[in-house]
Amino acid sequence: MNSKVETLKASVQEIIDLIAAKNDREANNKLLEVSETLDEMIDFAEEDEEVREITRYQVLLNQLHVKINGEEPVDGE
Asked: What is the pTM of this model?
């Protein structure tokens, strides 16, 4: 799980960097990719701590989605 979290951190930082560079299309594409990865991770999470960590990233991705698209996410996207 630790290596997956480290990869996740790097991916989220990449999204933030793309937003800062005003490259919203690439940021959104990366966000969708990371969201899919998070969905897979939560499906296979075995411990409560893993679920909590994944949930933190889901909240962050939702906030980044709003930042990129300027709107509230629909249906948990």
From this structure: 0.83
